[in-house]
Design a protein that fits this description.
The chain contains 10 helices and 21 strands. The protein is of the alpha/beta class. The longest helix has 15 residues.
Length: 342
């Protein structure tokens, strides 16, 4: 049998939980801690339990429209004990990159709101909104107030060949009314005008993960996310173990189709699973079946089937993902049993 997930065994001979041995737990926000105005079931309790056990809990967000203090206040409203120092934002990661590109105290053209301007000023830079001020660099982040004139000023300044830093390039952003265009769409508009790409601070780039590791002194961190294209790819690039929790954007279908760069270490229904023994997922040597707990999934011809349902849907999903990932079979060429993704 081939073990896809590294088997971890506690001193008592039982399989270890994902949280075991972790010194810093890093969590994404939307889709992990909350969705809309409400906290996600079991998230607050699990994160509080981790903090109470002596594990440092930090929060990583690509949202550039809010300050770290505003994020901390939002999280505290759910009953979590969070201060501004516990929050790492994409503006912080972007300004960290900016500091290595221009002299201290430079004038920077900022496209974005208070979440970004506050970090630029905190780092000792001067803020301008006008290309005529001859800024040393452009830094761009999302704000709902960003308009065409702001993007035009960035374009005018960048035509001088100065550095360009973006907080993140998320194509979409979840808002109360649904899914809206994110900072990636605004960055793309500037890119179309200037023909270059920015250096990026936020997920899925390493910079924000490196900033978190440095901030919290992490030696064995674990990152929790809900999106494969930003959270999990970013953690993998940073060499960090990761959890994909099924309470946000990406679910079973996306996991089954995940390429090698976007596969998490652990798959959890919700954050209670951080403290539960994680099954030793085994893939048969012939790459035709896999077992997770009591669930068994098999490949037969062009079908991905459930051979034994076991005791949970998440174990069926774990087995199916491991089997597909090990076999190299693309999901679009298979008939997948509905109970693996519904």
């Amino acid at each position: 049998m081939v073990a896809l997930f590294t088997k971890k065994v506690s001193d008592g001979g039982l399989l270890a939980a994902p949280i075991d041995g972790v010194d810093v737990l890093l969590a994404d926000l939307d889709g992990v801690v909350y969705k809309g105005k409400g906290a996600i079931d079991h998230a607050v309790g699990a994160l509080s339990r981790a903090a109470g056990s002596g594990i440092r809990v930090g929060y990583i967000t690509n949202n550039a429209s809010r300050t770290d203090a505003q994020v901390a206040e939002h999280l505290s409203s759910f009953g979590l004990s969070v201060g501004a120092a516990d929050v790492v934002t994409s503006p912080q990661a972007a300004v960290r990159l900016l500091s290595g590109l221009v002299p201290a105290g430079s004038t920077i053209l900022v496209v974005g709101g208070i979440g970004l301007t506050s970090e630029v000023e905190r780092a000792g830079f001067s803020v301008t909104r006008q290309a005529d001020d001859l800024p040393a660099a452009v830094i761009q982040g999302f704000s709902p107030d960003v308009g065409w004139k702001d993007l035009a000023q960035a374009s005018f300044a960048l035509h001088r060949g100065i550095p360009w830093v973006a907080t993140n390039t998320d194509w979409t952003i979840p808002v109360e009314g649904g899914i809206a265009p994110g900072n990636g769409t605004l960055v793309s508009a500037v890119h179309t005008a200037v023909g270059i790409l920015p250096v990026v601070g936020g997920k899925p780039e390493k910079a924000i993960f490196d900033a978190a590791v440095a901030r919290f002194g992490a030696e064995n961190p674990l990152f929790i996310g809900d999106r494969l294209d930003t959270d999990i790819i970013g953690a993998n690039r940073a060499g960090m173990r990761s959890v994909q929790v099924l309470t946000g954007i990406d679910g079973p279908k996306q996991l089954l189709a995940a390429d090698k760069d976007s596969r998490p270490t652990f798959i959890l229904d919700d954050l209670r699973g951080l403290f539960e023994p994680y099954p030793d997922v085994q893939v048969a040597d012939d790459l035709l079946s896999a077992t997770a707990g009591k669930a068994v999934v098999r490949l037969r011809g062009n079908s991905l089937e459930v051979a034994k349902a076991g005791d949970s849907g998440v174990n069926r999903l774990r087995a199916a993902c491991s089997l597909l990932w090990a076999s190299g079979r693309p999901i679009y060429g298979l008939v997948v049993a509905p109970e693996l993704y519904s």
